[in-house]
Amino acid sequence: MLRLLGILVTVVFAIAAALVTWPQFFRLERTFPLAQIVSLRGPLVVAFALVALLALLLCLARTARAFAASLLLIALVAAGANAAILAMRGTGSSVLPDKEDGSLRVMTWNTAGAATDPAVIARTAVAMQADIVALPETTIETGEEVAVAMREMGHRMWAHHEDFGDREDFPDWDANSTTLLISPDLGDYAVVESTSAGTTNTSEVPSVVAMPIDGSGPIVVAVHAVAPRQEAMAAWRADLQWIADQCAADDVILAGDFNATVDHMDRLGTDGATLGRCHDAASATGSGAVGTWSTAWPPLLGTPIDHVMATDTWTATASVVLGTLDDAGSDHRPLIVQYDRADEG
User: Fold this and answer.
1) % of the chain at pLDDT higher than 90
2) How confident is the model over 45-62, as pLDDT tens digits?
3) Is the pTM of this model over 0.85?
4) Among 24, 139, 237, 302, which is least packed, fewest CB within 10 Å?
5) Contact partners, residue 336, CB within 8 Å, separation at least 6
């Protein structure tokens, strides 16, 4: 009887390990609670390593040796698989290469509203030589403060925004607003009217779709998807599909808080892309495993839910997640990506 129970526990543990390590295989990557678990691959490595250690100790007991050895093998394979996935996506770098003529830098930072000083945002954007800055949970008033501060530092930007106004359930919530800053060097932009009217957007917190009126700039979408809380899973899945749909043109850049890792985006891309026709830049340039949320956790134990993505018009050449601003107020880390035009790279 005990032997049968051991076999049953081993089989269940093996299935569970497979589900949390690669839910995409079972098409469950956007299903509660696997969506939440797979977003934390760093902690999964630690958890499976602890199980392996306990199983190794259990191997000392002669009567449980076969059972413990089975658990040990499964835990080692699962820990190794998750660690290998993190390694392939990249554990990040601390610097960007020199910005060349024609290069484009995109920065995204969920500022957690008033928690982050506009002067800090401005200094960071200028230091990073950002041409596009996506600021979820940032009001237009704060965005304009950032733009003015950047102008005073010799780095002009135009501020655009989208907001859902004061809501009865979340009045005066800064997440009701998303701000997008774009350099005048990319030309003039306007926020898409249908989005401003609220007829098409992400579901609970706003995104900004900015279209070039003239100039050579891309379509820019400052993204903010709803968090995948249990009661918001349907809205979250709809948000990811909406974001994918925004990347249907030839020249598009997405940047912001997707509240999703690349694991959640399986089957939402076309022709090998991550979302729609857009490719995730951090994963392509060696920073895809660095957690952008939460700043309360070490980067490799956090979850990379903030992204910059672009169509094949752009080639991502480098990316960096800034870990030096964890005490700036926000619970997110800034992500900066450098692009070159594909025909120039």
Assistant:
1) 81
2) 999 999 999 999 988 887
3) yes
4) 24
5) 96, 105, 106, 107, 128, 130, 308, 319, 320, 322
